[in-house]
Design a protein that fits this description.
alpha+beta; about 50% helix; elongated
Length: about 140
């Protein structure tokens, strides 16, 4: 009886996850939303040292810089200009540029996740983690 309940619970949970993923894919993305990160620097420093990835592009985004709540650094927000072409690819590039800008402002370099070891054995869990890591680098949402 316990096994039947466990199997039923697992099936319901899996169905819920699949449904949520399908609904998310069908929902159009709001391309005019602000993409925001919190940078652990003073707002005046962020304005002076804003990385060129955000400012020099031909389709440079709107940029908003303001103090983060609770004195926790600076809120750096960007969104595509209303006259710029807005596609999923351009939004991914903007998201990547924002993440790179945060990394440059906080550490002075763009941090990348470590690649897989050459001696790593391929496993189902490892394949899943590789896919999740690739996806997170663009959209940021699993």
């Amino acid at each position: 009886m316990k096994r039947v309940q466990t199997a039923t619970a697992a099936t319901v949970a899996a169905a819920g996850v699949v449904t949520a993923l399908l609904v998310r894919r069908q929902r159009p993305e709001a391309t005019d939303r602000w993409l925001t990160v919190t940078v652990q620097r003073d707002p005046s420093e962020v304005e002076k040292e804003l990385p060129s990835q955000l400012t020099s592009a031909a389709d440079a985004p709107e940029i908003r810089i303001r103090p983060a709540s609770g004195g926790r650094g600076t809120e750096l927000a960007v969104r595509p200009r209303s006259d710029a072409e807005q596609t999923a690819a351009s939004r991914d590039r903007l998201r990547t540029a924002l993440r790179d800008a945060k990394s440059l402002l906080e550490t002075g370099e763009i941090l990348e996740p470590d690649g897989p070891s050459e001696h790593r054995r391929t496993t189902p869990t490892g394949n899943l983690m590789d896919r999740l890591t690739r996806r997170a680098s663009t959209e940021g949402v699993l």
